Amino acid sequence: MHTWSAGRHCSVIGAAHRRQNKPCQDASRVCRISPDLQLLLVSDGHGGSRYRLSDVGSRLACVAAEEAIRATATTLSLQDQAGWREQLERELPAAIEQRWLRAIETHWSSQLETGEESFSSALYGCTLGVVLLTPQWWGCTGIGDWDLVAIQAGGDASLVNQEQLSQASGEATLSLCQSGALSAWASRAQLQPQPSETALVLCTDGVRKSCATDADFLQLCVQMLEIQGEALAEGLAEITARGSGDDVSVAIAQRGGPTRSGRGTALAALGVAAAAVGAGLWWWLKPADPLALEIQQLCRHPERIEASLKQRRQQFLALLATPSNAQALLEQPQVDPLGALIAGSAPEASSELQLCPALEQALRAQWKAARETQEPSRAPARP
Question: Tell me, which fold does domain 8-281 have in CATH?
């Protein structure tokens, strides 16, 4: 059986966070627990004021996962696939969560200035993707919106694990900080015996969101197999700049090394050398969509929704009075993304916006308030 070569990982701050002078809230890790057991780990901190320490939370999540798996590996043989399957579904999630909670509580108590703010695990909220690799099998578990891609020797790639939330929309995702979400790990757990894959690529959601289609995302994962060292970080930085703007992390394991080497070739494969080889290499990236990005930001930070919409009360009233003005806002969302969102959410609007529940509810409330404000002015004067 073929062993997995030493994996590699990379986390890059998102273009949006760089502009806002915020830290990278992603973390990634690759470690060898024993000669026959290797880990790939990625974690995505939620960001925003409610999760203001999520950059610490994501880093500590990777540490907690490694520690929990190291402890398990001392007592459970890698030959016991049934035992490891049980671990991935139940035992390891609980052990990781407990270690993570202890770690963030220790971090909180070490803070010199917390004021009157009380401790909450939400401050450190993050996702976590875990992949275990052995010569006989690979397995995974985790929580949140990470993606795992398997690549065969011929270059065929498939998305073998992704988050599926039947009642979620927008940017909703499960989180390590949610005490009631422990049971959700089992739905992401799997163990693949006698693996045929030549590579596995574990990503935080920012990578997939930067691609126009899932087919493009899979092609990008195949191309990343060629990338080493600094070139991988540079390529990911370009991807977030031209794509989602989110932090991005990858952890990669292969059977054998890259098929090609060389910094120039690697950069070209990821499109970083677009000026030299043509902008056509960027066919997999999403064009900037100001309206989608506005929705994304508000759904990621629901605490901002009410204040943002209240500042536009006059715009709600103006669009009720003159509905035809909505079209101009929708045709040029880059001029006023929030205005385009409001126009597209009007009761009579034909556009179908993909909104998270919090944003949809807040918009309905503002339209209702605007109608109630407008109705008295339309009422005839009493004699």
Answer: Phosphatase 2c; domain 1 (3.60.40)
